[in-house]
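User: structure tokens for this one?
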Amino acid sequence: MKKRTPRPALLLPALLLTALPALAQLPPPNAAGVSAGHDIFTFHDMDAANKFWNALGGAPAELGPLKMTKFPGVLFLMRKGDPKGGTEGSTIEYIGFKVRNLADTLAKLQAAGIVPLPGKTAKQAFVMAPDDVKVRLTQDRSLPTPIAADMIKMVVPDVAAAQAWYAKWFGAKLVRHDGEKVGEIPGVNILFAKADGPVAGTKGRAFDRIGLEVHDVQDVCKNLEASGIKLDGAYRKATSMNLAVCVLTDPWGTYIEISEGLAAVK
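Assistant:
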């Protein structure tokens, strides 16, 4: 058998997707065939979690038997469990949304009993979701929807190395966005920040993993393994729906799920 030649990025022909329809939930992929598809959470109280995301503007979505909450640009998959910590202290310090009207958004949250954390300004505020999932809200009057996925803050000991790793494997483009230097993947901006001390990995915490959607996930998983990246969970396909995944952990502890099929969610 001819030995497979490792490639430094997910730039395989099978990954070069065409743009998704305008009504698709997830954004069109980048040149590496990758878009930010979903985040996976574990909450003690699912009713409290649903109440929070619904107050923020989330809407129900499904793929076969899989139930989700959707926002423009991202899907949240949630499960009941016993998370071992919130976002602070882990490699994902918080997640961020843009909102068209911050005052209106905070008013809706306050009606649900959720108040902003200290330090709120006229254009930005932080709130805490159940199980200490920290959320940043930034006003953008040009937003065509009331709310949309924006970013995650990733805390690592070596910012340059993390930027290069996400650029190499997932096509993250380093750009300046609203005054912040971020790694841009369609659907999310990764704000890399230097850790002041040790940080925990995300697996098993309330924010358990980030999700990246690709085309031909089986080939992507094979390419990662052939290039020396160890998978935490090998390629598998759900029998009850058209969804396939594999999982891995980045060198700094962020758990990642690579999927194919969530682009079908509207």
